[in-house]
Write a structure and sequence with these properties.
The protein is mostly helical and about 130 residues long. It has helices at about 1-40, 55-65, 65-75, 85-95, 100-115, 120-130. It folds into two domains: about 1-40; about 45-130. Helices cover about 75% and strands about 0% of the residues.
Amino acid sequence: MTKLMTVFIIVLAIFLGYRIFVYWEKVESEGDIREQEARKVVKGEQLPGLPWDLEESLRIATQRGDKALGTWLARNGARIEDPRRAWIQLDYCELLSRSGPNEARALFAEVWDRTPTNSPVVPRLRRLEGTFR
């Protein structure tokens, strides 16, 4: 009887060790997936929300500087949806940071408040937080 109990305990220990190993592999692979997602580089041009007919005018306004981009946003901002709108406004904040830092901080706060935590813009917001908050 004791031999049977010894064999049962050994089999149970092997089974539990196997289950712990399978669980550890699962947790490790989930961590790798999260890490890969965090490393993805988000490009503003790839984000949805900007009508195709505004692409060229946005590019020109961005090249011309903060005043041109501010005018462009005032004129076309209502037609743009998040997350692309938030990305463009953050571009504007960066351009505006030298000539109008208070206005840039106010715009950054507006973008920060309306952006959900699962947005692809959040990594950029966190990167700029030290500058504008």
